[in-house]
Amino acid sequence: MSVFPDLSRLLAASCGLFTLSLLSACSEAPPAPAETVRPVKTVVVSAGTGAEKLVQTGEIRPSEETSLGFRIDGRIVKRLVDVGAVVKAGDVIATLDPSDSENQLKAAKAQLDSAVTAEKLALSNFKRLKQLAPGGAVSEAQLEQAESDHEASLSARQSAEANVTSAQDRLNFTALTATSEGVVSAVTANPGQVVSAGQEVVRLAALAGRDAVFDVSESLVNSKAGHPTVLVSLLSDPSIQAIGRIRDVSPVADPVTRTIRVRVTLEQPAAAFGFGATVQGSIDKPASDQLVVPASAMTRDGTEPAVYVVDPKSSQLQLKKVSVSRYSDTEVFISSGLTDGERVVVAGVGKLRPGLTVRLLTEPKA
């Protein structure tokens, strides 16, 4: 009896068992990888953290700046000052050609002399007729006419005196004088130029006070900042500082930049705060009831602004839509969408997704 048939059956059974084991191994699913826990940096937002320091760059300008011009027409023959000249009240700044005014004054004086002579003659005639009237040598009508002539000559003399005064004033107006102590900040007319009455010749900046002038955004002016104390410092040397009070706010925005001009009067400024110096003004804006998050926390849900919030129970991320009231350089002010005490992710939000399990790195407060 041969052993080969038994060996063939044994080999066939072995091959069958090996095939079944291979099929069983292929039918088992690979084990799922463990979920990665992402470390995230977060802050806890809370109400009343809206306080911020607002900083703006501006320049120093005089509190008062006056445009000076002649009160009459004429041709400038001399200008005695240039930009930067310091003048006192009454100092002559420029003069006009006085020839026309001098001629008018001479004519007015001649008219006055004539009027004075005519008045003396009329008065003498009136007195003589008045003495003759009681004896009947002159009629009542002649006396009344003499009295009328005297009164007319008196009026003519008074008018001539007024003309002389006016001509003298006109001659005085050929010299342009400083109305107060100050420094010449601009010159707009030169010798030889014909100017009209009131046309600017120089601009005089008063030395009595200095203002810091800033062009700020409409949102800041319309905010609840009010009129706080302003700390003004030189941009070239921040250690030189002065306290300022808001003097006035322009009611009209600049048509190009849409900014509003604010003037801040400095209290006892140092000499270094010269006209034209670049300064930096800062105020502490009061806290608001809005929630504030760092600008790095912002992302989007579709087209709307959103932030990632960590669920304290599951440690998973939730994407929440928020309403933004305004922005600063480093912060975003949230008007709705967040509640006090929520934890917001503030770094790497572009690589996160809702439902992701995270681990907190730090626990500071916003």
Write the layout of secondary structure elements.
Blueprint: H1 4-27, E1 38-40, E2 42-44, E3 52-62, E4 65-69, E5 74-79, E6 86-87, E7 92-96, H2 99-132, H3 140-172, E8 175-177, E9 182-187, E10 194-195, E11 200-206, E12 210-217, H4 218-221, E13 229-234, E14 241-249, E15 259-267, E16 278-285, E17 291-294, E18 299-301, E19 304-310, E20 317-321, E21 323-327, E22 331-336, E23 343-345, E24 358-360
Parallel strand pairs: 1-24
Antiparallel strand pairs: 2-23, 3-12, 3-16, 4-11, 5-7, 5-10, 6-9, 7-8, 9-11, 12-15, 13-14, 13-16, 14-15, 17-22, 18-19, 19-20, 21-22
Helix pairs in contact: 2-3
Protein name: Efflux RND transporter periplasmic adaptor subunit
Domain Multidrug resistance protein MdtA-like barrel-sandwich hybrid: 68-200
Family: Belongs to the membrane fusion protein (MFP) (TC 8.A.1) family.
